[in-house]
Specification:
Layout: E1 16-17, E2 21-24, H1 31-39, H2 41-46, H3 55-72, E3 76-82, E4 88-98, E5 101-108, H4 117-133, E6 137-143, H5 147-155, E7 159-170, E8 173-183
Parallel strand pairs: 5-6
Antiparallel strand pairs: 1-2, 2-3, 3-4, 4-5, 6-8, 7-8
This protein binds coenzyme A (COA).
């Protein structure tokens, strides 16, 4: 069994903040933006959110699903907000906790993409979760061909991408997935050159590091 985060019994969510992005407990005031984020076409295409997502779905997620999963030590999901305005950027969390490993899951609204908020939120999560839960590995699963997700994982140091056809369950269907791995001691920066397509609208391939 994986370790329980301190305070999980009472749903006491640690606040994590880098001065720009804050991770905090999801609150009812996040419902309208959460519903918009989950109704976005990219969320429907690449995540497991229900289709036709409504504010009722968001209220259930905030008020029931997240607290219950947190207390059970099954999933730990945070709101990622603008530290200055408290506006919700998206959600980020650890799911599929097993042994000393967990998957990172996230969904950010269109207004957050390209701002660096998702990267900052993942860094806060990883810096906290590895020691707090004694994790040895974190995994990243992206539905093929979610290049935005795969590139973010690469920026964070996730490595060794493998493709497993039919590995991801999405609304009852088995869809193809990339899995990437980050060990506790791995650098949180790319260790290989980017091997995906260039950013849309850019001149050519990138070579980092
Ligand atoms: C995945 C997600 C969190 C990434 O957020 P982000 O890092 O702010 O996203 P960006 O739009 O900046 O894209 C990340 C990078 O991928 C690149 N990218 C995006 N789409 C791409 C494509 N089709 N081909 C090649 N590169 C692409 C971007 O140019 C960017 O690279 P850059 O920083 O070098 O310019 C966000 O897109 C999201 O929440 N999407 C909807 C839900 C989802 O896919 N969740 C993840 C499930 S695993």
């Amino acid at each position: 069994m994986p370790a329980l985060l301190a305070g999980a019994e009472h749903y006491d969510v640690p606040v994590l903040d880098d001065g720009t992005v804050r991770l905090r407990r999801l609150e009812p005031r996040d419902v309208p933006q959460l519903a918009l984020n989950c109704a976005d076409p990219a969320a429907a295409e690449f995540t497991t959110v229900p289709l036709g997502y409504t504010e009722d779905d968001a209220r259930w997620y905030v008020g029931q699903f997240v607290p219950e999963a947190w207390r059970a030590g099954r999933e730990y999901n945070w709101a990622a907000v603008d530290a200055a305005t408290d506006r919700l950027w998206g959600t980020v969390g650890l799911n599929a906790l097993r042994g000393t490993t967990a998957d990172v899951g996230l969904n950010f609204g269109p207004h957050a993409r390209g701002t660096g908020a998702a990267e900052a939120a993942c860094r806060l999560l990883l810096d906290h979760a590895f020691p707090a839960l004694g994790l040895t590995y974190a995994y990243w699963m992206a539905k093929v061909p979610n290049w935005a997700s795969r590139k973010l994982a690469w920026k964070l140091g996730f490595r060794s991408p493998v493709r497993i056809d039919g590995f991801m369950e999405q609304r009852g269907a088995s869809v193809d997935a990339w899995i990437l791995t980050l060990a506790a001691g791995d650098p949180r920066t790319p260790t290989t050159a980017w091997d995906g397509p260039p950013a849309p609208g850019s001149a050519g391939p990138e070579r980092r590091p």
